[in-house]
Design a protein that fits this description.
- The chain is α/β, with parallel strands linked by helices and 226 residues long.
- The chain has helices spanning 20-32, 84-96; strands spanning 13-16, 37-41, 51-52, 55-59, 73-76, 104-105, 110-111, 116-117, 122-123, 128-129, 134-135, 140-141, 146-147, 152-153, 158-159, 164-165, 170-171, 176-177, 182-183, 188-189, 194-195, 200-201, 210-212, 217-218.
- The strands form 4 sheets. An 8-stranded mixed sheet has the order 6-9-12-15-18-21-23-24, covered by helices on one side.
- A hairpin with a 2-residue loop joins strand 3 and strand 4.
């Protein structure tokens, strides 16, 4: 179920992953000053015992058992752009253990009180979500992404930095929108589609199709509606 920014939970969190995206998540959580970040977990054993921006990397994912779901929420930052299926599987595994996935909204993001942010979504610095927009569970709106009025963004989608959706755009589940791409108003990007960096999408994109360029054209197969 979605929520407004004012309704976000404030329990302490454990972050899965200690790479670049984890640093962005840590910064976003700290910007609001409402969450205690108690630990980072990462499979890379060479990182264990070290610090990432002041947060200790305590061990691998099996250490999650030390932080019971009755007291802690989780942020999944282990898998970024380009590996959506792996990230989704990890999210489902964590939920199956009884954890809530924390919703992350940077203090500098602009989210209309008339927009809805899904559970486990991440809205990073400078992102804009305008009135009537609905952002799905587990979606990432990365730095400076813009979701205009009345857009619908499906579950597990990832909008890379500076991706721009015009008004009334529909983005399907697990779609990936690259750096600085533009989706013109009223269009649909179906589930699992990939939009290349800097592309300008002028026609609907069918599911599991990759499009690139200005105007955007299919890279892998015919995939734009006439």
């Amino acid at each position: 179920m979605g929520a407004t920014v004012a309704e976000l939970r404030h329990r302490p969190v454990v972050i899965l992953g200690a790479g670049g995206h984890a640093r962005v998540v840590v910064d976003a959580l700290r910007s609001r000053g409402e969450r205690d970040i108690v630990a980072l977990l990462d499979y890379d054993r060479t990182l264990h015992g070290s610090m990432l921006d002041g947060v200790r990397i305590v061990g691998s994912d099996e250490c999650l058992a030390d932080y019971p779901p009755t007291s802690y929420d989780v942020v999944v930052a282990a898998v970024g752009f380009g590996r959506r299926v792996v990230r989704y599987a990890l999210l489902e595994q964590v939920r199956a253990l009884g954890y809530q996935i924390a919703t992350v909204v940077h203090a500098s993001a602009t989210v209309s009180p008339h927009a809805t942010i899904g559970a486990g979504a991440q809205v990073m610095a400078g992102a804009i979500v305008n009135p009537g927009a609905r952002v799905g569970d587990d979606t990432i709106l990365n730095t400076g992404a813009v979701v205009e009025h009345d857009c619908i963004v499906g579950r597990g989608a990832h909008l890379a930095p500076r991706a721009l959706l015009g008004g009334r755009v529909i983005v399907g589940d697990m779609a990936q929108l690259g750096l600085g791409c533009v989706i013109l108003p009223g269009l649909t990007v179906e589930a699992g589609a990939v939009i290349g960096a800097g592309a300008v999408v002028t026609r609907n994109v069918i599911e599991h199709t990759t499009v690139v360029g200005i105007p955007a054209r299919p890279l892998t197969r015919e995939g734009l509606d006439e």
